[in-house]
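Researcher: We're reviewing a set of sequences before deciding which ones to prioritize for further study. For each one, I'd like a predicted 3D structure that I can look through quickly. This is ATPase. If possible, include the structure in token form so it fits the rest of the review sheet.
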Amino acid sequence: MRIYSRILAKKLINSCFKGKIIMLVGARQTGKTTLSNTVLEHFGKEIHVKKFNGDDPIDRELLTNKSLTALQQLIGNANFVFIDEGQKVGTIGQTLKLLVDHYGDSIQILVTGSSSMHLLDATQEPLTGRKYPYTLHPLSLSEIEPIYDPLSITKQQEERLIYGSYPHVTQLPSLKEKVQELKEITSSYLYRDILEFQQIKNPDILHKLLQALALQTGSEVSYTELSGLIGIDKNTVEKYVQLLEQSFVLFRLSPYGRNKRREISKLRKIFFWDTGIRNTLIQNFNPLSLRNDAGRLFENWMIAERMKKNSYEQKLVSSYFWRTYDGNEIDYIEEINQEKKGYEFRYKKQKSTRPFEKGEVQTSLITPEQIKDFLY
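Model: Here's the predicted structure for ATPase, in token form for your review sheet.
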């Protein structure tokens, strides 16, 4: 099977042995363990590794609510500590603080987690100034096709829009196997941590919400309408959406507003980090030629790819959409240092894609032919 070179690999390696804990978060099945092992293999015989897995109850017990002396005995002469699925360790923040304060840069600690609400949130206060946080997403297009090749990108495009970019899914040879794997990810992994840690008693409600959101991809979402559709109160809908965002299933775009009365300021747009997951939720794997949502899929894919790129390049970018009551609209706006750039997405080829002004924002039209300039 193909081994992908992940963009974060060099960043993680260069962050080692600098007195900081490396925290790698991201949805399950995105390749966090594989990437971590790539880092360990880079150092090879230079390091002595001690590994723990938070999914293992014995390992959890070894790391939970322990004194520094007990942790020192546990680590022994290791100079690299790898904790997989660290969000499962009940006192992960306290444990990591004891270790990094005592050892400094003499050992490296690498922790992965599949939920920011349980790993990053749990370590926010005890590890202030003591960690390098990174987020790993499903494969980006530039990881699958590192060198831009128009023919390869064209061939990739339909598969990415329909089946997404989870590493194992991309490696399976048949479409049937891809669908089976996506269904397994969706049913077994997608929101496992939400159900486990938030003690949600009715997973069917969560699944119905995800299906409703999948059908509204790229549209402005009303929590009030969703609450009526699903049969739960508005506050619960908002809480579940936040949990799904913290578990890297989806992300929200806020409206860009300048406090003008004609700006729409309350609704959010919701997109999925992986279009394959979105299609699995609505059980639609039809070819793009037979779909009426190809344009929305392309918009979702492009925005998610752009946000992966910004995340990996560690750009301080604010992302929005823009729509006014009088019909002006921009699909996606990026603001960096008060400079704004807008993008509109069209799946079908356009006669002209020259930049244009819209609402005083310089806007570019992105079609499949403009992917190189937008993502590479």
